[in-house]
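Okay, is this right?
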Amino acid sequence: MVLEAGDPERSVELLWGDKPLPGRGPKPALTLDGVVAAAVEVADEEGLSALSMRRVAEKVGFTTMSLYRYVPGKAELLDLMQDAVAAEIVLPDRGLDWREGLTFSARQDWELYQRHPWMVQVTSTRSVPGPHYMAELEARLRVLERTGLSGRETMAVANLVSQYVEGAARRAAEAQQAERTTGVSMEEWWSSRVSLWGHLTEDRYPTLARVWMAGGYDGMVDDFEFGLRRVLDGIAVLVQGRDETPDRDETAAGCVTCGRPVEKPATGRPKEYCSRACQQKAYRARQASGQ
């Protein structure tokens, strides 16, 4: 879904700025938190396509212009909504090991997407993160801190888990939306494709036929949990590699160009290249790409 562009600096101010303390006198009937809560209700009940400043105004019983005193537009409102629902996430206990912690964190995200499926329609690449989102990221990185991974690897692993959960949630949300719109379940829809099955013959697709006969399309008990375990298995291989080399200098990195080990200097900034030739090669590549 293409969303309108907003002012990211205004989102930062709304998410991270100090909220004025209530003064004397009657409590205001409309607040920023109330606007955000109403917007989340609209998105939960009617979907993101139904969300608009006018619809939220109807929900809170005020005019649309009243809302603009609190939030400048829909884009900034979405940033606030994402951080508001992120407050529902329970952070992993500090005593958990990295695998237990990541499993707990991933399940929390998965359950959040089930409660608020509209979140998969909001782009996460340029959404302004708020304090609740950053608290979850902090907890996830803290879990990974004891693995011995480098800084880049730690962030890559955290992103990998997030991207897996988001992808699985997006597929589930699309299936739920299709069933809600048509009144036909996924099983019913595929069972009705009789005209298709006649083309999927054993002589034409022998491997597919064997997998089918072996129960490959019977479905798993829980696709999400199966995929999550496989992702964590892959991370475990990476972590185990670090455990087997305890004397490895965690600050050292491979050459940016060729990947070969780079000798760490006694003082100063770590080197990025193993040789002058690799440094020149990287420079020529940047020049060619216009960077």
